[in-house]
Write a structure and sequence with these properties.
- The complex is a heterodimer of chains A (about 200) and B (about 325).
- Chain A contains 4 helices and 10 strands; from the N terminus they run ααββββββββββαα.
- With about 200 residues, chain A is α+β, with helices and mostly antiparallel strands.
- Chain A folds into 3 domains: about 55 residues, no CATH class; about 80 residues, ATP Synthase, domain 1 (Sandwich), CATH 2.60.15.10; about 45 residues.
- A 5-stranded mixed sheet of chain A has the order 2-1-9-8-5, with no helix packed on it. Chain A has a 5-stranded antiparallel sheet with strand order 4-3-6-7-10.
- In chain A, α3 runs antiparallel to α4.
- Chain B has a domain of about 180 residues: Pyruvate Kinase, Chain: A, domain 1 (3-Layer(aba) Sandwich).
- In chain B, strands 3-2-1-4-5 form a 5-stranded mixed sheet, sandwiched between helices.
- In chain B, α3 packs antiparallel against α9 and α5 packs across α6.
- Chain B is elongated and about 115 Å long.
- Classes of the chains: A alpha+beta (about 200), B alpha/beta (about 325).
- At the A-B interface, α2, β1, β2, β5 and β8 of A face α3, α4, α5, β4 and β5 of B.
- Chain B: It is a peripheral membrane protein.
- Chain B: It comes from Corchorus olitorius.
- Chain B: Keywords: ATP synthesis, CF(1), Hydrogen ion transport, Ion transport, Membrane, Mitochondrion, Mitochondrion inner membrane, Transit peptide, Transport.
Chain lengths: ~200, ~325
Amino acid sequence: MFRQASRLLARTTTTAPWRRSRAFSTEVPAQTVEDSSFIQSWKKVIPNIEPPKTPSAFMTPRPATPSSIPSKITVNFVLPYASELSTKEVDMVIVPATTGQMGVLPGHVPTIAELKPGILSVHEGNDVTKYFVSSGFAFVHANSVADIIAVEAVPVDRIDPALVQKGLAEFTQKLGSATTDLEKAEAQIGIDVHSALNSAITG
Amino acid sequence: MAMAAFRREGRRLAPLISPRPITAVRSSPLPPTHEDEGPIGVRYISTQVVRNRMKSVKNIQKITKAMKMVAASKLRAIQSRAENSRGLWQPFTALLGDNPSIDVKKSVIVTISSDKGLCGGINSTSVKISKALHKLNSGPEKENKYVVLGEKAKAQLVRDSKKDIELIITELQKNPLSYSQVSVVADDILKNVEFDALRIVFNKFHSVVSFLPTVSTILSPEVVEREAEAGGKLGDLDSYEIEGGETKSEILQNLAEFQFSCVMFNAVLENACSEQGARMSAMDSSSRNAGDMLDRLTLTYNRTRQASITTELIEIISGASALEG
């Protein structure tokens, strides 16, 4: 009776719309923008094997840069195991760049930002969704599309304060007893992440 | 010892040397003894052989069916993960573009394959594509190296391109694939291999019966910077403002490493997914073939048995009529 339950649950939690497409062919390349010079040189040198595909053949097409600034910014927020947001139109995102919190509105200048552990908040009208991200990168493109890639992210309300305190104490102790540079760096990273988590819960 | 073997052999050969017609009605009044008729007589041995063969085919079919079931359940688990990871590489391609035709001195071809066989042609496809890429990018003052993931591509590439193999990593799929595991592998590759461009060859999962050989290209930070200055495809990169990090090259370094681990993660998952799909269809067709063979053998077996029954009946009837007449 509950055989399919896990699958159904998994389906409801993922937000990517193209995941729910046909069961067997899981992804249809929307348009094939191939590197023609690659294919030509391939065919010249290796005529008997079909040229392999390249990632651009599977890309979901990106919009062109509009002449006027759109009212919303399109956000892709991806994790290794899920696409949290995919081409979602929101009002603003605030990303935790290493230089400080960075608010991204439509028409932001193209930017590449490295992320530090901190809060990523997605503003959509009056709704604010807050995630804690561990690290990663954020790209803001000229066409008001923001890509955020994080290694790990959780909604802030799912963090357990007790465990955070425990982890913080543990890593502080580790930093005290660390002898090599590698151990010190690892402990420092642990402290950074946990204090960021701590301030995310309290702040 | 040798004599005994020879005697055994001789006994086996004896009926071939002096064959007796089997279909003809036996004129000898003596009933055939087991010694000279049983195991050698064509009438019985043929059904025996067919029966043995049927048994073995049935066993093979059982095994392939079980393997298909296992592959199907593994596929279902890994398919959702592969699909979820597809968002991961797209931002990088949007930012840095897709440069399969880039002309660099040191190319490193990362061939991703499976550790286990019986999965159709996915491993030989990725090896073939890797060799073709090697050929495509070879030239004077150019260096091509292989990094091999998986037992099967290793076996194929070691044979004729042993000197070009830089690094071999196997048994990646012993534990369920995770991002941290793949990033450790990626780190290993980055530490041990010098490159201007990494070309990752893998099979992208398309459906259970089809997979698409794919090449993802990852450029080293120096090449990205050079290309961005030279304009062309990466010319847009100069218009991006860079936040964080002391220098641009530092950020690009981090970016390239992160890109590599993300692309690798997706590639490994896609390849594992294709592997299970290919195994499932290969096992499906082989159990179907075994079924066909079993049908044919059953037909032969029944026909032979029927023929022997008919012959016996004829013998009895003709014997009886000879006594009457």
